[in-house]
Amino acid sequence: MSANLEQSFVQQLQANQNIIHKICRLYTSGEDEHKDLFQEITIQLWKAFPKFRGESKFSTWAYRVALNTAITLYRKSTRTVHTTEFDTARHFIKEEDYNYEEEEQIKLMYKAVHQLNDIEKALVFMYLEDKDYEEISETLGISEVNARVKMNRIKGKLKKILNP
């Protein structure tokens, strides 16, 4: 891989790493699992980066790869992430501080979201990130109408979970 490609990847990843942290937070329950999943997503992004054609924004592409990686790992495993070797000496990515001490309301919301299925979690995540339904549908591979209908159903589900 060329140094230019590597530099471009590192810059894009650093600019968008909060996306990955948020996905890790949705699909894991502990700091170690979070770090393992973050590493696995980074590896999958790196492996796929040479094929990234720039037809969509990097963030949209990263969402898709990260969500697919998280969903695939958690469907196959018993909540254990098996990681791939990664030569970290060549890929120093400055990790931003990630605050694990969230306010009580955010904790309750995450607890409620954890009760949703994988696709519902992804939809909620993107909705909370202020993604429009066009981008949500493109990333998840569903129609815009389907994304809107699912989101309305999910809102009702979350209301019942949070206010039984």
Task: Report on the architecture of this protein.
- By secondary structure, this protein is mostly helical.
- It folds into two domains: 1-98, RNA polymerase sigma factor, region 2, helix turn helix motif (Rna Polymerase Sigma Factor, Chain: A); 102-164, Arc Repressor Mutant, subunit A, CATH 1.10.10.
- It has seven helices and no strands.
> Strand pairing plus helix content: what structural class?
mainly alpha
**Domains, number:** 2
In CATH, what is the class of the largest domain?
Mainly Alpha
Q: Assign the CATH topology of the largest domain.
A: Rna Polymerase Sigma Factor, Chain: A
Q: In percent, how helical is the residue content?
A: 55-70%
The largest β sheet comes out as: none
Radius of gyration: 16 Å
What's the tally of helices? 7
The second-level CATH architecture of the largest domain is: Orthogonal Bundle
- Average pLDDT works out at 81
Distance between the termini: 54 Å
Which stretches are low in confidence, meaning pLDDT under 50 for 5 or more residues running? none
How many β strands by DSSP?
0
The CATH homologous superfamily of the largest domain is called RNA polymerase sigma factor, region 2, helix turn helix motif
- Residue share in β-strands: under 5%
General form: globular
Order of helices and strands: HHHHHHH
Protein name: RNA polymerase sigma-70 factor (ECF subfamily)
Pfam families: Sigma70_r2, Sigma70_r4_2
Domain RNA polymerase sigma factor 70 region 4 type: 109-158
Family: Belongs to the sigma-70 factor family. ECF subfamily.
